[in-house]
């Protein structure tokens, strides 16, 4: 069986990691698949999707802050961004973080670790964003 769903999120800041684990888990539960795989894909070039710690909110703040130290909006390392939109940093962060994830489904449950959450990673908000979820299994 193959099930496709999508949902929208509104990101409130230029850079923010938003926990979408509940939305994805809900889709997995409603798919009623015992064993399979959940693919998550976002159709954006200035955002990403990643899995990281969901217990201490300082972790997502550290990720955003450190990415900004490495890749500031105006560029660094003596290089001036050529892309005219002023969001080259967000394009680079999107490629580093990635735009898709695959998570196993076992006995109807998404096999995330105890401390793992799925984070939509906004790097050029606020914007309206889409998340695609495709579930394969039986
Ligand atoms: Zn751009």
Quick structural summary:
The protein is of the alpha+beta class and 138 residues long. 25% of the residues lie in helices and 38% in strands. The longest helix is centred in the middle third of the chain and has 13 residues, at 58-70.
How would you describe the overall organization of this protein?
- This protein has 138 residues and is of the alpha+beta class.
- It has one domain (2-6, 21-137): Sandwich (Jelly Rolls).
- The chain has 3 helices and 8 strands.
- The chain has helices at 21-31, 58-70, 88-97; strands at residues 2-10, 16-19, 36-41, 47-53, 100-106, 109-110, 116-122, 128-137.
- The strands form 2 sheets. Strands 1-8-3-5-6 form a 5-stranded antiparallel sheet, covered by helices on one side.
- The longest helix is centred in the middle third of the chain and has 13 residues, at 58-70.
- The protein starts with a strand and ends with a strand.
Order of helices and strands: EEHEEHHEEEE
Proportion in β-strands: 35-45%
The CATH homologous superfamily is called YjbQ-like
> What's the overall geometry?
elongated
How are the strands of the biggest sheet laid out side by side?
1-8-3-5-6
How many angstroms does the end-to-end distance come to? 6 Å
Features:
138 residues, alpha+beta, Jelly Rolls, 3-stranded antiparallel sheet, 3 helices, 25% helix, 38% strand, binds zinc ion
What's the layout of helices and strands?
Elements: E1 2-10, E2 16-19, H1 21-31, E3 36-41, E4 47-53, H2 58-70, H3 88-97, E5 100-106, E6 109-110, E7 116-122, E8 128-137
Antiparallel strand pairs: 1-8, 2-7, 3-5, 3-8, 4-7, 5-6
Residues 83, 85, 87, 91 line the site of zinc ion.
């Amino acid at each position: 069986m193959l099930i496709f769903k999508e949902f929208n999120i509104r990101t409130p800041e230029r850079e923010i990691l938003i926990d979408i684990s509940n939305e994805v888990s809900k889709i997995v539960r409603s798919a009623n698949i015992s064993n399979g795989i959940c693919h998550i894909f976002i159709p954006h070039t200035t955002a990403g999707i990643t899995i990281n710690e969901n217990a201490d909110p300082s972790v997502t703040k550290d990720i955003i802050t450190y990415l900004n130290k490495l890749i500031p909006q105006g560029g660094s390392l003596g290089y001036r961004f050529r892309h005219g939109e002023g969001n080259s940093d967000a394009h680079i962060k999107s490629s580093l973080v990635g735009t898709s994830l695959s998570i196993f489904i076992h006995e109807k449950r998404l096999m995330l670790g105890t401390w793992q959450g799925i984070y939509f990673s906004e790097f050029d908000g606020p914007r309206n964003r889409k998340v695609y979820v495709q579930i394969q299994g039986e």
